[in-house]
Amino acid sequence: MVHDRFGSSQNGVDALARQVTPKRKAGDDGYTGSEDVVMENAENNALLVTNLTYRYGGGATFHTSAVSEPKLIDVNLSFEKGSRVIIAGANGAGKSTLLSIVGGKAMVPQGHCKVLGKEAFHDGSLNKQRMYCGDWWRTNFFHNLGVAELVGEQRMATPRVQELIDIMQIDLSWRINAISDGQRRRIQLLECLAEEKEVYVLDEITTDLDLYAREGLLGFLRKETEQRGATIFYATHIFDSLADWGTHVLYFSQAKVAKCSRIEDLQEYNDLVQNKSRCPLYTLVKGWVGKEYPAQAPYVLSADAPMAPEPPGATLEVTNLTFSYAQGLPPCLKDMSFAFNRGARILVVGANGACKSTVMSVLGGKRMIPRGFAKILGKDCFNDTSIARDVMYCGDWWNTDFFMNTTIADLIGETQVETDRCRHLAQVLQVDVKWKINSISDGQRRRCQLLEILLPYRPVYLMDEITSDLDIFSREGILAFLKAESELRGCTVFYCTHIFDHLEGWASHMLHLSKGTVTRACPMDEIQEYSKLIADGCLTPLYSLIRGWMYDEYEKDAGAKPWRSTEGKNLKDGRVPNLGLAGPTMTRSG
User: Fold this and answer.
1) CA dihedral 196, 199, 205, 206 (to 10 degrees)
2) Do 19 and 64 lie in a common domain?
3) Does 399 fall in a domain?
4) 183: region left, alpha or beta (phi > 0 left; psi from -120 to 50 alpha)
5) How far is CA 548 from the centre of its chain?
6) Shared domain check, 367 and 226
7) Using CA atoms, how far apart are residues 503 and 511, in angstroms rounded to an integer?
8) Residue 142: inside a domain
9) What pLDDT digit, counting tens, does each position of 508-520 carry?
10) Are 20 and 48 in contact (CB under 8 A)?
11) 107-147 pLDDT, tens per residue?
12) How far apart are CA 220 and CA 217, in angstroms?
């Protein structure tokens, strides 16, 4: 029996099954072996992991021979069929490593990881029973494939695929090499889930889905377990609505299993619910993750830090803006108007297709519009180039092959690396400034990009879903940093997201968009529905508020499914790749 750092005892084995202490047998590759494992209901077992220690490297060539520090240490787990396992932990704790092993993507010696009684890596027949989704497609991988061409006409006709298309609102006219990363991820999910499997291994799959689609997909997966007895392993940093979805919580700490329990037996969670704590599951995991790191030092403003200017009018102002991506297309922004003053923290919400990112790109000067329709600090967003010095826009992420062996320290410069601001952000984002940007993961690269763009002092921050790849520690730290910037320097923060379990009490204002129009633009304390949810003791008032808005919006559509309208769109929806034959596509607005 091992005592974990959270004050409870566990042996890494779920309550559904028991095992005796195994005999250990050392292997040449550094793994520990298991010969004697006794389980109850072994025939109903979906996953059995026994004394698994794993390191990357150890290959046959010089470049692959180096062995990493252990990414998993003495892991013992067992789950029955039909389980829905929420896997949580800090960045680098071992979640993705375990899922890659369970998914058959990483080789381990036989006897250490079995799925449905078969060797996770060595038994190829498992690929007919198991689905793994964790490695996302690259932008330049496909050659103008359509959705039906990828999934296949036969599978496209099945009720299962049609249901998934509606859940994830996949437009059948999309061409995979001409859409956004978020849209491409939805198509990859469709392709992965198109066939029934007995085990689903899912690594952070819902970051690009709005609240409505996320709940729909989780509901679909829940039916898979309840109606067909499938088993789901789901690693995530997003805990909105998950407490009622999962059957188990598996928490990793520094490559070890620190907590493995049924949710109903998780006394810490039950205590939070009984005490009416806000967002209880998120609060619980936040407490666990907080023990992984030293306490975050509060952000201290430098004496020479510039204050945000005080314009005579609003800091952010959009007036009667109508915008379309190309001539002949209907406008996606329709007579839009809103204004927010200095120091506001604006939470931008809306369903997929509400045009949140389009508004963000207009304010960031990424879209050409006539003068007078969008201003920041009194300057025209597109036509006044001097505004670039005042606005930090984060919506376009670095590509994998952009950098040539450059460290983040070289990128930002030695002078900036030594500042207190840089040290604070590097600690919050868990960034080592010696990392070489072209040899780290996409998640690490995004954190480096956040460090690079947040380092200069700016009076306005435009941030489009920046925290989806961050663990709870980094997410809380970045939001605390932005809050301090608004309160101490008078900065204005415009933050668009689909994740709400960490935002209670953060925003000062709300901007709610629906189909390219403004539904609400007001201070949080003027939203009576939100105040009532808090007064009624709702444990997730912000999530419940926005969930109600989105479900009302979809119900008013009376089943309309605009993403299924394909007539002519494949020729004029602006998503066909620009081959450079006729110059750039022009836009119009006003």
Assistant:
1) 70
2) yes
3) no
4) alpha
5) 22
6) no
7) 14
8) no
9) 999 999 989 999 9
10) no
11) 999 999 999 999 999 999 999 999 999 877 765 666 678 88
12) 5
- Span 384-399, pLDDT tens digits: 989 989 999 987 777 6
H or E stretch covering 334: strand 333-340
Is the same domain home to 271 and 369?
no
Residue 148 inside a domain? The answer is: no
Pairing of strands 72-80, 45-54: antiparallel
The answer to whether position 410 is within a domain reads no
Q: Which of 239, 256, 290 is the last residue of a domain?
A: 290
| pTM: predicted TM-score of the whole model, two decimal places | 0.83
Residues 352 and 466 in one domain: yes
Euclidean distance between CA atoms 584 and 327, whole angstroms: 12
SS3 181: helix
The 10s digit of each residue's pLDDT in 246-283 is 999 999 999 999 999 999 999 999 999 999 888 899 99
Cα 333 to the center of its chain, rounded Å? 26
E-strand stretches of 472-569? 492-496, 509-514, 517-523
Q: Tell me how many domains the chain contains.
A: 2
Domain CATH for 241: 3.40.50.300
Per-position b or e across 67-100, b if 16+ CB within 10 A of its CB: eeebbbbbbbbbbbbbbbbbbbbbbbbbbbbbbb
At residue 320, the 3 state secondary structure works out as strand
DSSP 353: T
Q: Is residue 53 predicted with pLDDT exceeding 80?
A: yes
Rounded CA separation 234/98 (Å): 11
pLDDT of residue 86: 96
146 strand-pairing partners: 175
Residues 6+ apart with CB under 8 A from 130: 103, 104, 115, 116, 197, 198, 199, 200, 201
pLDDT of residue 3: 32
> 442-454 vs 420-429: helix axis angle to the nearest 10?
150
| Integer Cα distance of 336 and 317 in angstroms | 10
What is the rounded CA–CA span in Å between residue 468 and residue 491?
A: 23
Domain that holds residue 341: 316-390+458-572
Give the C-alpha separation, 49 to 27, whole Å. 16
- Token duo for residue 257: 């299993």
My answer on whether 239 and 367 are in the same domain is: no
Q: 225 and 322 share a domain?
A: no
Bridge-based pairing of strands 118-119 and 9-10 is: unpaired
263 and 344 share one domain? no
Q: Are 133 and 293 in contact (CB under 8 A)?
A: no
Same domain, yes or no: 247 and 329: no
